[in-house]
Amino acid sequence: QVQLAESGGGLVQAGGSLRLSCAASGRLFSINGMGWYRQAPGKQRELVAAIFSGGTTNYADSLKGRFTISRDNAKNTVFLQMNNLKPEDTAVYYCKLWMTRVVVEEYWGQGTQVTVSS
User: Fold this and answer.
1) What is the mean pLDDT of the chain?
2) Rounded to an integer, what distance in angstroms lies between the CA atom of residue 105 and that of residue 44?
3) 97 and 4 in contact (C-beta within 8 Å)?
């Protein structure tokens, strides 16, 4: 099995910063990529950012410039640096991992709450 342990969420004032971490462990094979999604109350889960093998990144257009994704391959850990946070960034943030064993498999973390107060 694969486990994803997220940390770094919390309560922050508008304009502040948070750094989320997600460490993957367990029966890991070829990791294709890791990323972050978020889901606000009453809304669909949406992509925040992802980083793939080779370093390619993908961001939600609305978050470019404020959020930065990075990865420590040796530790199978992905980070999300969030700056200039806004109340609309309030959501549960989920880590996601894609890896190939025989076919591409997807795994999700439990989620970490980020609350931005105005």
Assistant:
1) 96
2) 21
3) yes
Encoded amino acid at 115, one letter: T
Each residue's pLDDT tens digit, 54-95: 899 999 999 989 999 999 999 999 999 999 999 999 999 999
Contact 34, 98 (CB under 8 A): yes
Between CA 97 and CA 67 the distance in angstroms is: 19
Distance (Å, rounded) from C-alpha 106 to C-alpha 67? 23
Is the pLDDT reported for residue 4 higher than 90? Answer: yes
Between CA 95 and CA 87 the distance in angstroms is 21
> Strand (E) positions, 8-109?
10-13, 18-26, 30-39, 46-52, 57-59, 67-72, 77-82, 91-100, 104-108
